[in-house]
Amino acid sequence: MTRRADLARFLRSRREALQPGDVGLPSGRRRRTPGLRREEVASLAGISSDYYSKIEQPEGPAPSDQVLGALARALQLTLDERDHLFRLAGIAVPPRVAGGHHVNAGLGRVLARLTDTAANVVTPLGETLVQTPLARALFGDETGYEGPARSRIYRWFTDPSERARTPEVDHARHSESIVGHLVSASGNLALERQVTALVRRLTEHSAEFAELWKSKPVPGLYCEAKTILHPDVGRIEVYGQTLVDPDQQQALTVFTAEPGSESQEKLTLLSVLGTQSVATS
């Protein structure tokens, strides 16, 4: 049963508890009310300001589970708070599975402060949950895929276009590294069902994966130095540093280039241009 007044009150309280800096927004001029503005929450959740304003009203519309999930991420709710939000809306609480799509609140707060850095949060199955603007400009938007293609592991072995930003000379090494990390994830009982399903699909669609999976490669560094062939600015060398959340099985990886290098200059250019095409800007 929907508890509309309680739902509106809860959303408002969580919005007012956040500051612009908590979600990577500039503070701007002095604010008349505490916390984030409604239009800021709406923008973070990918919904219209008018619709969000109505949701915050006691007699407003009943949001869908997709909208609730987006609001939980935008408001940086903990899993307990997310579950409470769903109960107030009268919608079944999503299962708490390892590597689920709810971003850990702590990782989300760290990511929000990396406004000029390429960073993302990824599950052990290679599902990108959220990216900074520079990460989207560098790697492309990896959050909009559906079904098995949500996993970049799956895309690497089944979609030739996924390899376009990696030099061909690095393909074999990258394939082995990816499978090695999946082998590591298979040892986690909480991920067993998901890993088994992904391995089955990949074995059916990729002979390369099937051979590598048989050999059970040992994973190396979590995020090795990598070369990216960007369609607009060309070759970029980056290094990854990773922060792992053991509870929700998520990892935040920050990508940087050597200071003063040509790659750093290209990252700076991308941070200015965002997802625009350099060629048309």
Secondary-structure-derived class: alpha+beta
Average per-residue pLDDT, rounded, comes to 87
Total number of helices: 12
**Shape call:** globular
- Taken together, the total number of domains comes to 2
CATH-derived topology of the largest domain: Beta-Lactamase
Task: Please state roughly what percent of the residues sit in beta strands, choosing from under 5%, 5-15%, 15-25%, 25-35%, 35-45% or over 45%.
Answer: 5-15%
Largest sheet geometry? 5 strands, antiparallel
Physical arrangement of strands within the biggest beta sheet: 2-1-5-4-3
How many runs of DSSP E, i.e. beta strands? 5
Distance between the termini: 51 Å
CATH class type of the largest domain: Alpha Beta
Residue share in helices? 40-55%
List the helices and strands and how they pair.
Elements lengths: L3 H14 L20 H8 L3 H7 L9 H10 L4 H10 L16 H8 L5 E5 L5 E4 L1 H7 L12 H7 L12 H16 L5 H14 L1 H9 L10 E5 L3 E12 L4 E7 L5 H12 L8
Antiparallel strand pairs: 1-2, 1-5, 3-4, 4-5
Helix pairs in contact: 2-3, 2-4, 4-5, 7-12, 10-11
